[in-house]
Design a protein that fits this description.
heterodimer; A: mainly alpha; 4 helices; about 70% helix; elongated; B: mainly alpha; about 80% helix
Chain lengths: ~170, ~450
Amino acid sequence: MAGGVDTGPAAPPPGLLDRVVTALAIAGGALALGVAFLVTVSVGRRWFGFQPIPGDFEFVQMATAVSIFSFLPYCQLRHGNIAVDTFTSWLPARGNALIDAFWDVVYAAMMALVAWCLFNGAGDMYRNGTTTMVLGLAVWPAVALCTVLAAVLALTSCVTAVRLVRGRRA
Amino acid sequence: MSGVGIAALGFAAMLLLIAVRMPVGLSMLVTGAAGYVYLSGWSPFLAYMKTNPYYQFANYTLSVIPLFILMGALAERSGLSTALFKAAEVFAGRMRGGLAMAVIWACTAFGAICGSSVATTATFGRAALPELTRYRYDPGLATGTIAVGGTLGILIPPSVILVVYAITTEQNIAKLFKAALIPGLLAAVFYCIAIAVVVRRRPHLAPPASVEVGDRLGALASIWPVLLVALIVVGGIYGGVFTPTEGAALGAVAMLLVGVAQRSLSWQGLIDSLKQTAETSAMIFLILLGSEVFDAFLALSRLPETAADLVSKSGLSPYAIIVSLMVFYILLGAVMDELAMLLLTLPVFFPIVQALDFGLPPDEVAIWFGILVLIVVGIGLTAPPIGLNVFVISSIAKTVPIAATYRGVLPFIVMDIIRLGLVLAFPGLALWLVRLLS
């Protein structure tokens, strides 16, 4: 069980996917920090008697969804998702690695399905012209971004599975 | 097969998958999806998934979770957790067991700017463990204290668990944060009592430390920014000056500015904070996504209504029911991830609790139950055989056997159970501040 703490041996030099996924996580974190600044400015304007930034919560919502989807591949790359060691702990390390690899493949399949569904959802929103309530922002670009990120997650999960089979944990 | 039968089967399948190492969030997602498809077919499921994963995350209330994690991460990388521990050490260091008590108080202060127990445990594992080791504290006492101190990250508001509880049960986050304060401070006091009792009976566990007591004003001077930010964030949310999301955003920005102004936050430290936020948030949100799909399946199966109906017609006393729910949570929490446990059980248990008559208005019962659940989650995070905080501290203190940490944790669990009993018997411990501030 890994609760967000690095326990694996030193990882080999990062490949292209590792760099992309890490960059996505940092970009998502920067987006969250940007949201924090936006909200702070909005609150500040309210305190000093100005209009708060109109519809700021709509930015918050979109940015939160996009940043969470950009975090997921990084978490998977680092095996940060919580799994529970029960009677599998008596298995040799190799056995556990193969089990984890199998679940990584299942995760990849599930996220490929999510990406496919989101792709259709983004298409629907584009055709229907779905917009947000206050600002009238188009929603489909945000969903399309999440679609791409979900696809990256599925790919990352395939790669971690292959690495586990080859005896690498990170 | 009836919907309820399918739901029971779904629960069993999910627990089985978790037992064979499937990540918790994924097993909820997979069994929830399978149950949904079985009960209503492929096309409604695919239609549900078209936008749901997006709207599940595009949620204003949930945005406080990454923001609170970011605030805590920035505080740690700016060295504020170390400063908190040093300051607490100056005040408590000379007492027998004082360093362990300093961990508890530093965690309490850190809990007011951090909403995650895993993050708090990891933070103080790095900030305090080397010091405890240097003064030859018993390894199990040291790691046990940090694992338990970590739970203060959620026991003291803000708290990720309370945010999740509030969203699942449609309660007011600010009220839950108010209700958590007194039981949270009580936890810190009780943990210090546990330390005092343990080191009195077995003094060799905590050798006296010749801590430089130095000037106390200097110690306070180094931590006032973090205390001020905590006061503004928690106070602002309590006073209704801003929403929890606004408080979290303000806190994250303030922590960044403090780090930059004190020149203690490096560029690398900022990048690391963002990465840590990414990993911890993703871990939580995968479980949230899985539980959303699983709950949609449960709602289709009508299990929650059926269970609430059954219990309210059973004629058992409300207290007997709530005590058995707590015992159930302690047992389940010992073997399961606590966040997943709450998300899975609340859709079934919350309607039951709402149907019980404690002589309190239903919204007060909801708040009180949230605090009870929080205490049980804290126990589950440290209790053997599966305590997430214990795993976190073990991954940092690799030389301490995990059994030693579990032995170190035991006295604290006893205190937690006493505290659970007190809050059960006196709902006012949770509700007094809510009533006072409303």
